[in-house]
Amino acid sequence: MAITKKADAVLDASPDAVFGALTDIAHLPEWNDAIVKVVEPLRALEPGAEWVVKVRALGQSWNSRSRVTAVDPAQGRFSYRSCTDDGNPSYALWAWTVEPDPAGSRVAVTMELHPATFWRRVLLARIRARQMGRTELPSSLHALGAAAKTRRSSDGSSGASSS
After folding, report:
1. In this structure, how many other beta carbons lie within 10 angstroms of the beta carbon of residue 17?
2. Helix (H) or strand (E) segment spanning residue 28
3. In contact, 106 and 8? CB cutoff 8 Å
4. Least reliable range by pLDDT among 55-59, 79-83, 139-143, 151-155
5. CB 115, CB 3: distance < 8 Å
6. In the chain, what are the domains?
């Protein structure tokens, strides 16, 4: 049983700047409030590459390991699979798209939670999905736009990731 949440927004930044900010894993805590810190950085932006972040939500914190499943800067597509770093078989699939828009960029994110253990299926995944859909995803998209604009203005580039 998967639980899916989607969000999208139009951001006042170029697709290159947004995609660069999105895939610059070292700076995730700057635009995603649930991420406390990057524990293990992404070494290369390619399928199979992994990173670990410390997440704080629902009054708890844990390490979350993510593995890139697809990346296509030209098409503005980035996806990965995330799971806790404690061996629990539950996981989440994330898919991002960044497309040109007359106002800058249209960004869409889909999160699919796949709870595999009893408490995650019955309780935790439902609470977390509700929280993500109501506040975290919209807030993160807004903050991603600000990060993309800051990135563009601070380095003078389009914001494309060099990871």
Report:
1. 27
2. helix 28-31
3. yes
4. 151-155
5. yes
6. 3-155 (3.30.530.20)
